[in-house]
Design goal:
Length: 85
């Protein structure tokens, strides 16, 4: 599989750190459909919407896993503290 990338100088990357965890945000145009991009490709809106929906579901599943892991870590810590009482 080959990774297709485009470089744009108009994108601003914003890094935010909260509680020692860094979050990265992209500000600017990220995706466009029905327009020719710089490498001459045109991505139809219907195809792009389908791919975005799949990516969103994948991100959501990963986020839920992270939340579950965090909850288990807190619960484990709580049980550990209880066992010392």
């Amino acid at each position: 599989m080959k990774l297709i990338t485009e470089v744009s100088e108009d994108i601003q990357y914003i890094t935010e750190e909260v509680g020692g965890k860094k979050n990265l945000y992209i500000e600017g145009v990220f995706l466009q459909s029905n327009l020719k991009n710089r490498n001459g490709r045109v991505y139809p809106k219907g195809i792009m919407e389908k791919d975005i929906e799949q990516a969103y579901k994948s991100i959501k599943r990963a986020s839920i896993r992270e939340l579950e892991e965090a909850k288990m870590e807190v619960f484990s810590s709580f049980l550990n503290k209880l066992s010392k009482i």
